[in-house]
Recover the amino acids of this structure.
């Protein structure tokens, strides 16, 4: 009797999680569609995409990055969550929808979830190695805004000439762009980043050259 | 089409390949290892390309498959039928109409546009393999940019033949960093790799490697200052469409030794004949 009651409560919890943190209605086709948008964003750095994903209850993460998590994470991936996004509800939703393992060690994370405010250049995310540069943490970062305007100018693979990207003015946003600019010096090691702002998304991989419009080449 | 095992692969395998593809795009020309799956076709039939296509293809995509430039060869037909069956996608032979093009040994003559994805079937992904059989060593050579041996190989050609004899799978350098095998395309197609608006993805099934050239990426064919890279040229024009700028195949027309040169890209040749007629 007691056992049956426990199972029922668990199911209610699970139903509550799935209702509050929506999954993909049609997983195979929705994840394909979202992946193509993410692939497009990574292939053409700085371009903006709007992802059609049911918004999670927490505004802090936003629909686009939740869509990235649902599309790319599963029980083979480790996810690091910054303190300002972390909550029992998010952990439950991650486990319920993806099976991803939460890790406290940023260096072992495949993906890191954070906001621009929480970005600390000293956090030891994995940059990969020169022999296996793919073994690097991909940062999924909530930013202040996403617009194709100054002050950061992007060039390199995926960009025909030059593309402007604005993720915000906060110290965290500036530090993120500085970190991306530093990727060139350690290439092929480096951090790839996917930025989210509500349902909008943009990506800047480590191959991108980043400079501020008001400065000379950073590297 | 039922979503379950859409495009043959299970969702977890697709996610694993998709994560690897993002890394491949982020590090242009670098070979990303992936946990490939067995496919219902033998190696040599493009299982690497098929797995990439299966991981990116959507129900609304229009797919084109070519082998040596032709849409109607056994390999191309069987892969096209495979995706019609497992994904229910629309297919085409027209380069301009395709969203995704899977290819073996050619890049279409018709210029690709932004948004299109070209998926290459790759037999041997490692350009340094013929020099160094050890994967550990070639990985180190890539890490250290130790590419002098590639030039030695090309130089030996010049010493022996007076010119660089390598005519297909001609090595390139991607974004001034990684030396990459462009798959066994003729070197005629190498210039199309440079600054192409389409995304190019490469899949090697046997060795389980993926790599990529993002759109608008600088891709140079290795050469020497005094022996610059050159593409093949023909004295003939295509016997069917009159093209003097496409890659030509020599075909035997009868048992009297009759022969002619025709475009290897059948869609290109047919569309040109359509315009002329
Ligand atoms: Zn022709």
């Amino acid at each position: 009797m007691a056992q049956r009651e426990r199972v029922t409560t668990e199911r209610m919890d699970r139903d509550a999680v799935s209702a509050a943190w929506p999954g993909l209605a049609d997983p195979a086709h929705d994840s394909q569609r979202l992946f193509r948008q993410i692939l497009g964003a990574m292939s053409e750095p700085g371009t903006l995409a709007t992802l059609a994903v049911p918004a999670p209850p927490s505004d802090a993460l936003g629909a686009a990055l939740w869509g990235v998590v649902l599309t790319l994470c599963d029980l083979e991936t480790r996810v690091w969550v910054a303190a300002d996004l972390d909550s029992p509800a998010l952990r439950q939703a991650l486990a319920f929808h993806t099976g991803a393992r939460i890790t406290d060690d940023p260096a072992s994370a495949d993906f890191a979830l954070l906001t621009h405010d929480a970005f600390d250049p000293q956090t030891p995310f994995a940059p990969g190695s020169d022999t296996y540069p793919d073994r690097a943490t991909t940062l999924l970062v909530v930013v202040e805004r996403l617009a194709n305007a100054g002050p950061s100018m992007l060039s390199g693979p995926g960009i025909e000439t030059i593309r402007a990207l604005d993720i915000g003015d906060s110290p965290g946003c500036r530090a993120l762009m500085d970190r991306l600019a530093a990727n060139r010096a350690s290439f092929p090691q480096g951090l790839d980043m996917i930025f989210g702002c509500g349902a909008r998304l943009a990506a800047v991989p480590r191959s991108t050259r980043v400079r501020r419009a008001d400065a000379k080449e950073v590297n | 089409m039922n979503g379950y095992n859409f495009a043959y692969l299970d969702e977890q395998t697709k996610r694993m390949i998709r994560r690897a593809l993002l890394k491949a795009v982020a590090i242009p020309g670098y070979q990303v290892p992936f946990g490939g799956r067995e496919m219902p076709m033998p190696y040599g039939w493009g299982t690497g390309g098929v797995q990439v296509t299966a991981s990116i293809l959507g129900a609304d995509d229009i797919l084109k498959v070519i082998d040596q430039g032709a849409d109607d060869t056994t390999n191309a037909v069987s892969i096209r039928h495979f995706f019609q069956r497992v994904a229910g996608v629309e297919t085409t032979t027209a380069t301009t109409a395709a969203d995704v093009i899977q290819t073996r040994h050619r890049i279409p003559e018709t210029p690709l546009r932004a948004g299109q994805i070209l998926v290459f079937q790759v037999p041997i992904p490692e350009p340094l393999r013929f020099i160094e059989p050890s994967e550990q060593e070639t990985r180190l050579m890539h890490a250290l940019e130790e590419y002098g041996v590639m030039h030695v190989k090309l130089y030996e050609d010049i010493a022996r033949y007076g010119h660089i004899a390598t005519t297909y799978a001609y090595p390139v350098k991607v974004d001034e960093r990684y030396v990459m095998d462009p798959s066994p395309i003729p070197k005629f197609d190498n210039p199309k790799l440079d600054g192409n608006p389409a995304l190019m993805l490469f899949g090697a099934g046997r060795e389980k490697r993926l790599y990529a050239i993002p759109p608008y990426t600088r891709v140079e064919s290795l050469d020497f200052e005094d022996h610059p890279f050159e593409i093949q040229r023909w004295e003939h024009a295509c016997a069917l469409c009159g093209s003097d700028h496409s890659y030509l195949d020599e075909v035997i027309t009868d048992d009297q030794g009759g022969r002619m040169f025709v475009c290897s890209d059948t869609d290109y040749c047919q569309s040109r004949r359509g315009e002329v007629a």
